[in-house]
Amino acid sequence: MSSNDIIVSLDIGTSKVRAIIGEMNDGAINIIGVGSADSEGIRKGAIVDIDQTVKSIRSAVEHAERMVGIQISDVYVGIQGNHIGLQTNHGVVAVSNEDREIGEEDIERVLQAAKVVALPPEREIINLVPKQYLVDGLEGISDPRGMIGVRLEVEATIVTGAKTAIHNLMRCVEKAGLRISGVILLSLASGMMSLTKDERSIGTVLADIGAGSCTIAVFEQGGLAAVSSLPIGGEFVTNDIAYGLRTQTEHAEKFKLKYGCASAADAADDVKFKVMRMGTNLEKEFTQRDLASIIEPRMQEIFQLIRQEVRRLGYGDKVNGYVLTGGAAALPGTVALAQAELEATVRVALPDYIGVKDSAYSSGVGMIQYVSKFMGAKGAGAMKKASSRKASSPATSKPGMFERIKNMFNEFI
Ligand SMILES: Nc1ncnc2c1ncn2[C@@H]1O[C@H](COP(=O)(O)OP(=O)(O)OP(=O)(O)O)[C@@H](O)[C@H]1O
Ligand SMILES: [Mg+2]
C-alpha cells in the first residue's frame, strides 16, 4: 500500500477530537481506523488553550494509530466557526494551447484568477469551490477539460476565515507533530457525505449540532450557498440536566447518553435511574420522562434558533428540508421534534461505514470523501513506520507556515 492510499482527517470539536483513517481502494473508501479523545482547550468550537488542544489531538491520533498499527504523519484538518465567510468570485483566462483545447494548466490558471479578491488583512482564503465553468460564454460546464475554446471562465465560491483562528488551529496540529495536507471547511465535507446530489441542488439546510456549536450550511444549485455558526449544542442540554437533577455535569452527560430522549411524551415512566445529588451523598430516583422534560425545551429552543438563523440568512421559504449531523442529533426523538419545530422534512445523516455509524463522525468521514473526490488525495495523510515522526524535525524540514498555507491553498479546487 503506498502512502497515497491513506487519507487522515482531523475534526477538532468542542467535546471530542476525532482522527479518522481512510484507505482508498480503486476509488472506494474504507475506514480502517478511528481515534477519539476528549477535547480540552476548545470552547464553543474555538481554541482557547493551545497546549490542551495539542494533547487532545495527540491522544486522538495515537488512538487511531494503535488501531491500525501505523504512524500518522500528515492530516487534513477540518475548520468551522463564526469567523467563516463565503463570497463568490469570477475568473477569466485565455486558453493557452494553440489548438484551443482546454487543459489542466488552463483550469489551474482560471482558478488562480478566481482567487484574486480583495480581502481585509485579517482574513484569508480557506477553500475555493468552482460552481461552474464557462467556455466562450457557454454556461453550466462542470468540467471543461478537453473542450475547445478561446476564453475560459469560472464562477467560484470562496470560503474565507479569520487568520487568527486558522493559524491557531494549524499551530495546534503542528505542535502535535503532524503535517497539514490541507484545511477544509467542515460544512463542505459534511455536505459531501450527508447530502444527496438532489438535496444539494434544491435548497437543503445541513445543521451540524455538536457539543458547543451548531453550524448551519445552506446548499442550493449544487453547492454551498451560505454558512453560519451558532453557539449552541448538546453541552447546553447536558448543563440543563445537571441543573435539573442537581448533579455533576459528567453524570448528567452519562444519563443523557443512556436515557435521554427529546420528547417527554415518548419517554417512559417505568425507566428509572438513581442520581447522586450534588453536595450530598443521597441518591434520588428519576424517570426517563423527568429527564425528557428537561431535554425537550432545550432541543426545541435549538431548532427554533436554527430556523431563525436560516430565515436571517434569507432562505426561510426556499428550504426544502433539513439534514442533521453532529453528536447532538443522535438523541432519540430528535427527528420528530425537529420536524415539528422546523415545519419541514428532517432526517439525520450518518456515515455508512462500520465503526463510524454515528452522526458525530459525519464531518470527519466527509472530509475523507471530499479529499478523495475533489483533491485527488494530493499529499494524502501519509503513513510512516514508527520513528519517522521524530526523525524529521518539523522546524527544519518544512517551509514556514505562511508559505505552506499559500501552497496548500494553491492545491485547493
Ligand atoms: N447518543 C447521543 N444522545 C444524545 N446526545 C449525544 C449522543 N451522542 C453524542 N451526543 C452529544 O453530542 C455532542 C457532541 O457532538 P459532536 O461530537 O458532534 O461535537 P463536537 O464536534 O465535539 O463539538 P462542536 O462541533 O460543537 O465543536 C455532545 O454534547 C454529546 O453529549
Ligand atoms: Mg463538531
From TrEMBL:
It is a peripheral membrane protein. One of its GO terms (cellular component) is cell division site. SUPFAM superfamilies: Actin-like ATPase domain (SSF53067). Keywords: Cell cycle, Cell division, Cell membrane, Membrane. Pfam families: FtsA, SHS2_FTSA. InterPro entries: ATPase_NBD, Cell_div_FtsA, FtsA/MreB, SHS2_FtsA. It is found in: Cell membrane. Residues 7-194 form the SHS2 domain. GO terms for biological process: FtsZ-dependent cytokinesis. The keyword Repressor does not apply. Belongs to the FtsA/MreB family. Self-interacts. Interacts with FtsZ. Cell division protein that is involved in the assembly of the Z ring. May serve as a membrane anchor for the Z ring. This is Cell division protein FtsA. It comes from Paenibacillus oryzae. The lineage of its organism: Bacteria, Bacillati, Bacillota, Bacilli, Bacillales. The gene is ftsA.
